[in-house]
Structures are given as structure tokens and as C-alpha cells.
Design brief:
By secondary structure, this protein is mainly alpha-helical. The chain has one domain. It is 82% helix and 0% strand. The longest helix is centred in the first third of the chain and has 36 residues, at 85-120. Mean pLDDT is 83; it is low at 445-474.
Amino acid sequence: MTTNLTKGSPLKQILSFTMPLLAGLIFQQFYNLVDTMIVGRTLGLTALAGVGATGALNFMVLGFCIGLCSGFAIPIARAFGADNISLLHRFEYNGIVLCSIFALVLTLVTTFFCRPLLVFMGTPADCLEEASSYLFIIFAGIPVTCMYNLASGYLQSLGDSRTPFLFLVLSSVLNVFLDYVLITKTSLGVAGASLATVIAQGISAVLCVLWIILRFPILHFSPLKVPLRLSVFAELCHYGLPMGLQYTVTAVGSMILQMGVNTLGSDAVASMTAATKISNFLSCPTNALGTTMATYCAQNVGAGKLDRLNRGTFSACLLGFGYSVIAFLIAFFASSQLTAMFITGDNISSLLSLSRLYLLINTASYPLLTMVNVLRFSIQGMGYSTLSIFSGVMELIARAICGIMLIPAFGFPGCCFGSPLAWLFADFFLLPAFFLCQRRLKGRVTPLPAVSAEISEPSRVPVSAHKAVSSAVR
């Protein structure tokens, strides 16, 4: 079912659209947590450290794929908001082709260089083999990662955040089953965990595509009638590349931070791995709000309703600030119990103490994270994706400071401030950038960027025709 976010109460619309996204992220993090739990409690501390040592590099590559696909979906949302179905099809088909090219190249490059990069990052020798085998399979699964994120991005751009969530629930259950079988019943070790993740996400991707074929005629097109054009590729790259590079630049900072943590040994790496997994789970609501704001702003800019941007952004921030209090209380009262699900051994009390410190500092900083996600994705939805790279640079600088200066000076407590300091630096840039983007949008004759004017069809689909198509997919 499509959802028009250009009408009604912004708070209600944002909350309604966010809830399925949030549920999907929770289930996605759930099977990431299961990976970590089974690895840590079944294969031991060294295997857990091996999985954790891949985190920054994994985020750099897969984050680029996720950002790229999210960016490719923004023109879809704007064309949908403007009721221009022919332009929507052109962005859709060209996006599929361009995403396939990126996926193929990234898969070949990353699988070849994954081990050398882990060595370069100073991954502890006792967990290098586990880290390498885990990461190789994850990178080999880049095509299914791109396939799922592009398909779900197309659905979300039309206002359907529920369907991707339902498919993630199904794949999460399958992932848990595959984790248990491949890790405990075979000799694959940590490779079994990564293989389970790739298989589960591949099934989600196939289901999303089938759902589009069966239930979303608005996305049906004939490749023979929709030409491939370099001008459309350029328009897609205008949105997708900055969003992907923003993840990459941010991840470079995380890699520098990870290199600093690696110098503290396997115990520190394992503690941060467990705490990071829990923090990623707790931060799902702020991430869901960010994704919502990209679609919300894109549709409203496409419809020319710029007055709704401030109201929507303010409402999203209020929701995020309220949740931040809940997240801190969870970390304060249950951090040790949550971390204990991941690690066992003789030194568990020390590991629990380190993880608790990390979680308390990070969750106390979630209001900063809320602003990062809401403002960054709002800016991207308004059509200024390039600015996201600069916010990523600010995060890189902050994490580099922690990795190079704070960790050598203060040890593990220094790494706990890596993310909060990064969020603070990013907010210093994003807050004025958000208002600058709004001022630039005001007074524009056409809501679509100038590049789009060169590739759009001369006539627009009437609103009545669009409503007829929308009713057919409800």
C-alpha cells in the first residue's frame, strides 16, 4: 500500500511510517545479535573478537551500498510526490542497472582485499583467521545486500514501510535457525554466521522483488520503453554517491578508532563488540526516524509543500529525544545482563564493566544521534545529498581524535567517547546546513532539481490517474 506523506498531521504521519521501519530494524539487529551471541557463547572469546574486528570495515563497504540504494530511491519519492509516473519509471530502471554495476565491482574488489585490509588495521593475530573468513562471505553477499536495499527503498519511497518489515521478520527467524545449524552442527565456525546472514538477506531481497511484481503495478515498466541514459545515471549518482560516501567517510573514522581499540587486545575488542551490538539495537528508533525523514522530505519537496518540512523535522526530533531517555534507563539498569548474553569466561566481570561504561556513555548521547539522523536524512530528502559527505568528514575527524589521542592516553574509556564526539561534531555542521537548504528551496519554480528538468517527460500523469493506480495496490 502506498502512503502519501504530503497530507495530514506530520507527527502522526511520521510516527505511522516509522513504526514498521523500526520493527524491521529491530528484527535486523536481532539476527545480528543472534550471530554475536551464538559465536561468543559457542565458539569463544577469540571468535567473538574476530567478528568484532570486522565491524568498521564491514560498515564502510555495506554502508556505502545501503547509502547508495537509499539515494537511488529519493528521486522515486520525489517523482511520486509530483505524480510523474513516467519519470518514476525512468529513475527506477536506470537505478536497477546502475546498482547492479556497483554491486559487481564492489564484490570483486572487496573479496580480494578483505584480508590485507584486516592486517593493515592491526587486527589481533589470534583472531585474524576468524575475522577474514567472516568478512569474505559478507562481502561475497554484496549483490543480495544491494538487491534488498534497492527493492525495499523503492517500496519505502512510495510510502510502504510495512512490507519490507514483514519480510525482515521472516528472514530473521530463518537466520536464527541457520545460525544454530551452521555454527553448532557444522565445522564452518564464524563463517557459518556470515553465511546465515547472507542467505537470510537474500531471501528478503527475493520476496521484496516478488511483492513489487505481484502487488505494485505502479512500479511495472517495460525496459524496451524506458531508455538507459547517462543523464539519468548522473541524476541518480547525485543522490546516491554522496549518501554512500557519507557512510564510507564515517567508516574510515570508525576504522581509525578500531585500530586504536585493537592495540588494547582481544578483551577490549570483545567488550566493545558486545557493547556495540547492544548499542546498535538500542539506536534503532533514531535510525528509523532518519529513514522516515528522507521519504517525508522527498515527497513534500516533490509536491512543493515546503511549509511541512520544519514541522516534520521538529516532530521527529521530539520523538527521538523522548526515546533517548528510555534508552539510557535500559542501559543503566540492564547493561550488564545484556552483555552477559554474549560473553563467557574467567574474566567476565572485567568485560561486563567495560561494556557497561561504553553503553552508558553512548546512550546518554542519543539526543545528539537523533539530531544527526533526522537532520542528515532530511537534508538528503530535500535534494542536497552532497552535504552528507561533509557531516561524515566531521565524524571522521572526531573518531580519529579518539583513536589517535584519547585511546593512547586513557585506554578503553577513550574509545567510549568515539561515537558521542562524532555525533556532536556532525551536529555542528548539520544544524546550520538544514536551515540553509530550506532557504535555497524557497522561491524555486520547480520542486525537482535542475538536472531532472532535462530528463523529465513533457507531460505529467494526472492526479486522478495516479489515485487509480494507487487504489489498485492497496
